[in-house]
């Protein structure tokens, strides 16, 4: 019966290693996929008559696409840096 005791310890050790591996994978996924929000400006003022259709964030600026298709690039202070009009 010493073989059964050895097998029981081996199965227990393997189960513990598997649980530690699953915990490590879960912790890695949690750390890598946790949302890190960018620094947003206090306020963004759109040009007169424009409405925001989509907003996205880059490293140092905020990009707003208006309902008319104009792309507006705002810096980290909320100042309009560039405007790209759609092709007509």
From TrEMBL:
Record-annotated membrane-spanning stretches: 6-31
InterPro entries, A to Z: DUF6476
Highest taxon, organism lineage: Bacteria
Pfam families, alphabetized: DUF6476
Keywords carried by this UniProt record: Membrane, Transmembrane, Transmembrane helix
Record's keyword annotation contains Transmembrane: yes
Name the UniProt record assigns to this protein: Uncharacterized protein
Annotated organism of origin: Paracoccus alkenifer
Organism lineage: Bacteria, Pseudomonadati, Pseudomonadota, Alphaproteobacteria, Rhodobacterales
């Amino acid at each position: 019966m010493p073989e059964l005791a050895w097998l029981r310890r081996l199965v227990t050790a393997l189960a513990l290693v598997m649980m530690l591996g699953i915990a490590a994978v879960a912790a890695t996924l949690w750390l890598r996929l946790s949302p890190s929000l960018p620094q947003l400006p206090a306020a963004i003022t759109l040009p007169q008559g424009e409405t925001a259709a989509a907003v996205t964030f880059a490293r140092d600026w905020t990009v707003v696409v208006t309902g008319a298709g104009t792309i507006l690039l705002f810096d980290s202070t909320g100042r309009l840096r560039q405007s790209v009009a759609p092709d007509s």
